[in-house]
Amino acid sequence: MIPIKTKALIGAVTMALSMLSGAAQAEELRIGVRAGPEAMDPHYMALGNQIAAVKNIYEALVAFDENLQIKPGLAESWKPVDDNTWEFQLRQGVKFHDGSPLTAEDVKFSLERVPGAAGPDGGLIINTRNISEVEVTGPHTIHITTSVPNPALPQDLARVGIVPKSIGNASVEDFNNGKAAIGTGPFKLVSFTAREGFELQRNADYWGGEVPWEKVNFIEISNDAARVAALQSNRVDVVNYVPFGDVERLRNSKDTQEIQGESIYVFLLYPDHRPQSDLVTDKNGNPLPSNPLADRRVREALSLAINRKAIVERALEGFAKPANQLIDDKFFGAIPNPKELAYDPDRARELLAEAGYPDGFKLPLHCTNDRLPGDGATCRALGQMFSRIGIDTSVNAISRTVFVPARTRGDYVLTMAGWGSVSGEAGYTMSSIAHTNDSSKGLGAFNVSHVSNPKSDELIAKAMRTLDDAERRKLFEESMATVLEDFAIIPVLQLSSVWGVKADKVTFTPRVDEETLPYFMQPVK
Hints:
globular; eleven-stranded mixed beta sheet; 19 strands; four-stranded antiparallel beta sheet; alpha+beta
């Protein structure tokens, strides 16, 4: 039985979608997404839902295929000139949506714009952190110089959308209202309303070939039941993040089908390493002299308290697998056969006693409930498991719009969040969340839990500037092992991804980064 509140929400979504109902034209595609973009500025935020949305409008020098293997984008080719310099040859004949030609000056402008355009999560600074100079050496040639050797620069640039230099000092609002939303991608922006959705129109002059849809409407429907109901009532043609409990229902209907794929997203537990925290108290609510999470034994106890297999089977209905490291096991720099993380609540209680907390303590656990499938359910399961070893845990599963800025400010002491190594290798993850935050080196940009370990820092920094693939792989594996041994960040599980589609309307190959990109969706013939 659907709760009354959920029924009301479904009704509200149905009304909101009424303008899109009726006989949908063959070339119109309607997509219901769990989370939409916060803005239409391609450099504003780095969250996956943000990047997936703006990719329809803007393109980068380098692109990723559905398995996160790099391929040419706006650059036809690239090569290292020396240890610190890369040359990129631009694709000729590409035009922006306003008809102006793509030039090297536009690329230079876009890359240099990134730091000043960053939003609440730091934007794409992590992707351009090592760039010290962008030099135009010809109308379609640029040289990018980095402060240190960066063998993964092409992967780093795959998320940085290129905009025309003519937009000047455009504001976020200029992008949102369409004035500055000028890219080279397969679709043009028609309209955008934050928290509601956005409308796209086919770019008839797209350099990449025919665009299969004349019009695309993205509708943000954060409630899972309402999103599936919109698909089943023919209000949308595609939905992402199908609740795992609804998959069988889609399979059994002649009108819908599920498209399932692997995902790069891993739920990670982030204990705060700062020595003091007012958020952690004894069982009576009195402050503790120090933050228990700064003690490795306590962090190990948290990991031992987690029954990962039970969460996968009960909370996520089998649509995930236990995670034993911070990234997908198949990625470059991952430990090839990581040791399975143990479940041992008795040993967890012993470690708490050894650390000086035989009676446990109290703390809040914060996470999102509207970003990735199962985030709230996984968070609640973790809270129950921690309580069983004596850590009274209050679970706060909240909207991503509240969670992300508060977490970035350092307002939380223990968080669970999804993380994906969107570059397809270890460097993005290790340099972003596992290295000490050092803005002068562009490392640790997303290290919100104040992790700091000189040994892993040294290994990560060396790996990031090592050009030899074999040596770089070894350094990343060693740094990963160091972080895991310290329980600095604790892997929980790795998700699967599930979309729902109208069986007679659309089909596509799922992407491991979970992006829902209409250009790669084909009408059913």
